[in-house]
Design a protein that fits this description.
GO biological process, one term: bacterial-type flagellum assembly
Mean pLDDT: 89
CATH class: Mainly Alpha
InterPro entries: FlgN-like (IPR007809), FlgN-like_sf (IPR036679)
Distance between the termini: 54 Å
Function: Required for the efficient initiation of filament assembly.
Low-confidence stretches: none
Number of strands: 0
CATH superfamily: FlgN-like
CATH architecture: Up-down Bundle
Number of domains: 1
Oligomer: single chain
Shape: elongated
Largest sheet: none
Structural class: mainly alpha
Strand content: under 5%
Family: Belongs to the FlgN family.
CATH topology: Methane Monooxygenase Hydroxylase, Chain G, domain 1
Protein name: Flagellar protein FlgN
Length: 148
């Protein structure tokens, strides 16, 4: 039965590796300013891999349940305590998943920075075009003119 768990873990590890590569491509596109050319493909691959990761996680949980273990991290810890091959793959999976999480956070910050820059550029263009910076009754600029 641990063979089914090992297979599920290996499939999940392969999917996390592929997901991490897509995140690396996304980061490179964000840094290079080439995002619009590759964004549709990146979004499609991320969506596909997210679905696969969810399915592989369910397979792992089912394999744990078949072994009479809880479908949780506690169950995994019990399973790896008796099988070194499981422990090796599980450790790689956790390490790579953390790397993917960190890269995803970095990409989110890059996207936010780009959005903030674009927002500031739009404000500057509106002001340069003579759009009035009129304050509302509350003493604030309209939302479309505010900086973030």
């Amino acid at each position: 039965m641990t063979a089914a768990l090992l297979d599920a873990l290996q499939e999940e590890l392969n999917a996390v590796e592929a997901f991490t590569k897509v995140l690396e491509q996304e980061e490179a596109a964000l840094i290079d300013g080439n995002l619009m050319a590759v964004l549709p493909g990146i979004v499609e691959r991320k969506t596909d891999l997210t679905e696969k990761l969810s399915n592989f996680g369910k397979q792992r949980e089912a394999a744990l349940t078949d072994l009479g273990l809880p479908a949780s991290r506690e169950g995994m810890n019990t399973a790896i305590g008796s099988d070194n091959s499981l422990a090796d793959v599980w450790k790689k999976l956790l390490t790579l998943a953390e790397r993917a999480r960190a890269r995803n956070v970095t990409n989110g910050l890059l996207i936010k920075t780009r959005m903030d820059y674009n927002h500031q550029a739009l404000i500057a263009l509106r002001l340069a075009a003579g759009a009035p910076a009129i304050y509302g009754p509350d003493g604030r600029l309209p939302m479309s003119m505010q900086t973030r």
